[in-house]
Amino acid sequence: MGAAKIYFIVFGILTIAGGVVGYVKAGSVASIVAGGITGVLLLVAALLLPEYRIVGLATACIVSLLLAAQFVPKDLPTGRVLTAGKTSTLSVTRAILAIVAWLKK
Fold first, then answer.
1. pLDDT, tens digit, for every residue of 72-100?
2. Are 15 and 23 in contact (CB under 8 A)?
3. Does pTM surpass 0.90?
4. Read out DSSP for 14-31?
5. Residue 22 half-sphere exposure toward CB, CA atoms < 13 A
């Protein structure tokens, strides 16, 4: 569970940073709000893992699936690994990690 916790902390911070970058580059308020909310939710999920495993993993999985739903469709038509491609890949990876950690006892 320690590796999952570290993974969600790192990507929670990176998700927040991605929102800030989206705001700085494009002036997108939606990017900073969405990045902030999803990043904080990933950090909360990581902090819940030791004592509230199911809630933490469910939160991380739901947030990861929402991010994947946002970014995978943007990446597929281009075939290029842009910011959306990196985010979609990481989101799918986070969702899989949450499911595997959930099933592993």
1. 777 666 666 555 556 666 667 777 777 77
2. no
3. no
4. HHHHHHHHHHHHH--HHH
5. 19
